[in-house]
Amino acid sequence: MGVSELIKSRRTIKKFKTDEIDQETLKGWLEVSTYAPNHKMTEPWKVVFIGEETRKQLNHKTNFGNAPTLIAILSHKGRNTVEREENYATVSCFIQNFMLLAWESEVGTFWSSIGTSNANKNVLKVSEDFDLVGVIAVGYPEEITDIKERSSIEEKITYLP
After folding, report:
1. What are the angstrom distances between the C-alpha of 18 and each of 4, 105, 135, 141, 144?
2. Looking at domain 10-156, which CATH architecture does it have?
3. Is the separation of the CB atoms in 103 and 9 below 8 Å?
4. What is the pTM of this model?
5. Domain ranges for the chain
């Protein structure tokens, strides 16, 4: 599958099978994901694998669709506002890379913002030096939703003189 088709076919998965994903495969996707655009090579990401005890403390309303793997992705805040924003953007690209690599192998993902509350940051032991960008559920899809229509890019383009 080409990159365009991979991007357009990727879905957010809300219900997963219980089959485990091989840890070496996950680490391989994470390794390749590090090739995200990375201004000044700050490599600001940190990956936290979430175990069952911590997962229960997060108390997600659907238990992350029962995905067998749950990871938190953090971004180093950097030395100033500009670096913090650049790092966050880089980590978002890292996450997109990971999600596309998983989808290429027929593994689905669900990017949750549940970890952004102070209570959940504490559960996940996020230090003051990091932002929590998301909690990613990973697993084989039980259900795959239809593609949702997107607005035309023409509606989003502005040309300046």
Report:
1. 29, 16, 18, 9, 15
2. 3-Layer(aba) Sandwich (3.40)
3. yes
4. 0.95
5. 10-156
